[in-house]
Amino acid sequence: MIEEFLLRVPILGSKLIDYDDFFEMLIRFSINLSVAFILIRAIYYPIHKRKDYLFTYFLFNILIFFVCILLNGVKLKLGFAFGLFAIFGILRYRTEQLPIKEMTYLFMIIAIAIVNSLSDKKVSFAELMLVNGSIIAATYLLEKVFLLKHESRKSILYEKIENVKPENHEILIEDLKNRTGLTIHRVEIGKIDFLRDTVRIMIYYYEADPSRSMNDDAFVSNRNE
Fold first, then answer.
1. Average of pLDDT values for 58-86?
2. 82: number of CA atoms within 13 Å, CB side?
3. In the chain, what is the straight-line distance between the N-terminal and C-terminal CA atoms, in Å?
4. Which of 56, 93, 113, 157 could form a disulfide with 64 if both were Cys (CB 3.0 to 4.6 A apart)?
């Protein structure tokens, strides 16, 4: 009797609990969090070893899931989903710009949260599991099977400024290979300081174990001070 009374009496205009909606949300959240855990902790982290992004990815996924599923009742649906993509698509951190692969993972985390929360009753759980499984399989295959080489990069402060000339490109790469011991396959010339005869160069190289590399914004100085 008490339970029936509590279910019928609204609290702030809402039911105390709707068992059908509650358990549906619980199942959807379990699926969403399981998929996010596999993508972030089982696939992304063992390869890239970026602990700082684990916090961001998990919280993004959880927050977006609950925002979407709680606002699902207002029937915003597709427009609301694209609105979220637009908001987070222009997201930039003031202290650091996200590398392209980390940004891709961020979009993927947002996408699975939206898919798992906003799919209506016309989408069966079997279809939902197929979509999530396909995302996991594609990510795993691309990271572990097809893309066997991982491209890393380091920022170099280089003092032989004459080697940045286009005609000395091969000399520049060979000198950087000798100094760093890395198999460099391309470079990007950054800011040139003629006053100090230095140039900022981003070097790119492949390595089998990316966990042993420095962060993308790592700094290496070749100048004798």
1. 72
2. 4
3. 82
4. 113
